[in-house]
Amino acid sequence: MHAVVDWLLQTILTWGYTGIFLLMAMESSIIPIPSELVMPPAGYWAAQGEMNLVMAIICGTAGSLVGAYANYFAAQYLGRPLLLKYGKYVFITEEKFAKVEEFFQRHGEISTFIGRLLPVVRHLISLPAGLARMNHLKFCLYTVLGAGIWVTVLTVIGYVIGENQELIMRYSHHALAVVVVLSALLIVAYVKLQKRKNRS
């Protein structure tokens, strides 16, 4: 573990902001690079004066947006035609597909925002957004908001804790638990608000 931590620290320092951008772009697409292994080392180097904390967060968030768009366009230009053509063989009719599109058109903002905060989901949430052709301004805004929060949390953890990977993972898990709870509360509040709007 110590060797892995040293390698990650040196890699982030050597590649600099470009490395943060590229690794987070891969993390945000389908390549399973945990953000917990990318952003805390950047925070550590910011604490040492080797990097700028704000720039590291900006590069990490920008990388997440680019990776999310890779999935978005893949789903839009590859997944959509395939689903419309072959979906009937796996019980995905055109009517069901239209309902999914309608759902994401109505609730894509909250889905994208919360999806960016959750593990596994953050890699996949761009796919239904691309299939539903979600508005680009909204997709970009809520992706940046969600990714920016998570990137900031991880970078600050690295900034405060340093190179102790065990502590970083522990506090990352604590942060994730808090994010999951807050996301659940946000979903409940959103559902209640939608019900109130429907009644009115």
Tell me what the structure shows.
- With 200 residues, this protein is mainly alpha-helical.
- The chain has one domain (2-199).
- It is 82% helix and 0% strand.
- The chain is built from eight helices and no strands.
- α2 (39-47) packs antiparallel against α3, α4 runs parallel beside α7 (136-161) and α7 runs antiparallel to α8 (165-199).
Q: What is the assembly state of the chains in this entry?
A: single chain
Structural class: mainly alpha
> How many whole angstroms does the radius of gyration measure?
19 Å
Specify the helix fraction band.
over 70%
Number of strands: 0
* Large-scale geometry: globular
Number of domains: 1
Mean pLDDT, nearest integer? Answer: 77
End-to-end separation in angstroms reads 57 Å
Poorly predicted parts:
none
- Number of distinct helices: 8
Question: What portion of the residues fall into strands of 2 or more residues?
Answer: under 5%
> Biggest sheet, open or closed, and with what strands and sense?
none
Reading the helices and strands in chain order gives HHHHHHHH
How would you briefly describe this protein structure?
This protein has 200 residues and is mostly helical.
Write a concise keyword list for the protein shown above:
globular, 200 residues, mainly alpha, 8 helices, single chain
